[in-house]
Amino acid sequence: MRAFDDLVAEAAAADVTGWGFEFLDGRAAEERPWWGYVRQQADALSQSEAALDLDTGGGEVLAEALELAARRPSATAATEGWEPNLLRARSRLEPLGVRVAAAAPGEALPFAAGAFDLVTSRHPVAPDWAGTARVLASGGRYLAQHVGPASAFELVEYFLGPQPEARKGRDPEREAEQARAADLDVDELLTARCRMEFHDVGAVVWILRKCPWWVPDFTPERYAAKLRALDARLRREPFVAHSTRHLIRATRR
């Protein structure tokens, strides 16, 4: 394994835009939920005439699902709120006929009421149930894979210490209740807990830059002592954490 300073410097300089994770190839691993979200999204797109993908990131997941779809919707749109990802999503998705709109979490969706018969999202930042219900036509479907409670918290709490209140967030049953309150009938709710392994300290630095909400004040300099201790540990064994996910299918009443 390379020297600590080299691993950290490389990870601190690497690109973290979009939702690609190629930097982690051979350096970290994560099990995927058993239901196969991209395949589920592709099947849903095949049955849709007007589809919207929320928080699309760099458009990687939607582009893959469109490639797998037996047929594509007549109209497809996507939203993204972070400027670097927005630019990447437009360059990737617009050649596929997808309109990519700027919409940050919490902002009103820039679409007419009832404009879509399908809304999808892989890892929405903060589910907007009222906004989703508004843009869905009656009988329209919602399909999304959400991040679950205490996801990767072994790593989060290594840096921040115990986070008992934060562990209560993203509860799948609570989100299902919020969906029902917004006039969505929850047809299916599936959960999964998946093993993650990190094999070098550069992988940890990169993922904390990629997902800044995990450790909001993270910089390699601020957490240098923690990183050095972690590096010593990783030279003996991988750091194991667990991601949590839930799949929600719902229908607009």
UniProtKB/TrEMBL annotation:
- Please indicate which superkingdom the organism of origin belongs to: Bacteria
Cross-referenced InterPro entries: 23S_rRNA_MeTrnsfrase_RlmA, SAM-dependent_MTases_sf
* UniProt protein name: Methyltransferase domain-containing protein
The record lists the membrane-crossing segments as: none
